[in-house]
C-alpha cells in the first residue's frame, strides 16, 4: 500500500514532505485537508493524529507527524542506493544536514510565522524586531551558501528540500531575496532540479493569496 500523506495546500512543511517523497520516487496517497474549515478536528482525523496537525503520514501501522522527522523516516525506509546522496550515512555530513533542517523549521519558518502569518490571524501590527531578525536569518543562509552549491555542501540533500520550501514561502510573502546573491542563485538552481517543485510553487501562490486576502499591508 502507498504511504498516506495528510497535507494542506499552501503549507511549506507539507510541500517539503511531498518533495521528499517525489525525490525518492515514492508512491504516495494524498489526503488533502482544509485546516481553516476544521478538517483536522474531525473525529476520523483525531483518531489518526490527536495532535491534529499536518503533515501526517500513515505507513501501514505507523503514524508520524512533524515534517522533518517524516522526511528522515521516508529516506531511511525507502531510499534506494541511487538516492543515498540526499542524506549520507557519514555522521559529520548528517550532522550538518540536521543542523540546517532544524534551523529551518525551528528558527527560519517560525520567524516567518511571527512576522507575516500571526498578524493576519490576530489582527496585530507587525513587529520591526521580527523583521530585523528575519533579515539576520536570511543572512545566515547566505553565509551557509558561501562557496557552496547547496546548503550542506556541494550535493543536493534533504536540507535543501527543507529550506527551499520555506524560502518559497518567504518569497511569497514579498521578501526580496535578490539582496542575498547566494540565496537567490541557490533558490533558482534548486527550483529547477527538485522533483515536485511544482507543488512548492503552488504552495507559494496559495500562501501569497492568503496574505493578500487577510492583510494587504503584509509586505517587506
Automatic annotation (TrEMBL):
It comes from the Eukaryota. It holds the Pfam family GST_C. One of its GO terms (biological process) is glutathione metabolic process. InterPro entries: Glutathione-S-Trfase_C-like, Glutathione-S-Trfase_C_sf, Glutathione_S-Trfase, Glutathione_S-Trfase_N, GST_C, Thioredoxin-like_sf. CDD domains: GST_C_Delta_Epsilon, GST_N_Delta_Epsilon. Residues 90-210 form the GST C-terminal domain. GO terms for molecular function: glutathione transferase activity. Residues 1-82 form the GST N-terminal domain. This is Uncharacterized protein. Homodimer. Transmembrane segments: none annotated.
